[in-house]
Amino acid sequence: MLDPRPHLGEPPALDLLNTRWMEHGPRDLLIDVSGLGIWLDSAGLSEAAPADERTLEAVLAARSAIYDTVVHGTHDALNEVLDHGRIRRRLTGTGPVDSPEVDDPARLPGWLAANNLLTLLAEAPSRIRRCAHPDCVLFFYDTSKNGTRRWHSMATCGNRAKAARHQARRA
Predict the structure, then answer these.
(1) What pTM did the predictor assign?
(2) Other Cβ atoms closer than 10 A to 117
(3) In this predicted model, what pLDDT tens digit does every residue of 26-60 receive, in sequence order?
């Protein structure tokens, strides 16, 4: 099944947040294991863990923790997710290798998303943004040169905002 979400291609932490969106009311891809399977496929993690109830529970906990960190600045729940894994570094015949290790394979997709958030926070925390449209709940990582992107998509939310401003001027 195709991923029904309106915005794809963000880093894993934000992509997980974007499993909730607004489209004729609130939508949530992760309401069941079939939606989890879609997200795992879309995120390239279908081989990492099975699309089952245990994985769904772990991914939902990670999504909640990432949301709390990004929106509220709290980090206890994120640290709880991260406590279930680590990066193992080794030197092999082909060079250095970093391998994620988790205490339960069902936790791997959520742990990878939480770990990705740490990378984004270390690189440029100010570029983690929520779409500026008041009716949008999507997040994005601003990769624009000057760091002033406001919308998850100019074609949708940006255009709606410009149209609303135009209508207000005409009224």
Answers:
(1) 0.89
(2) 26
(3) 999 999 999 999 999 999 999 999 999 999 999 99
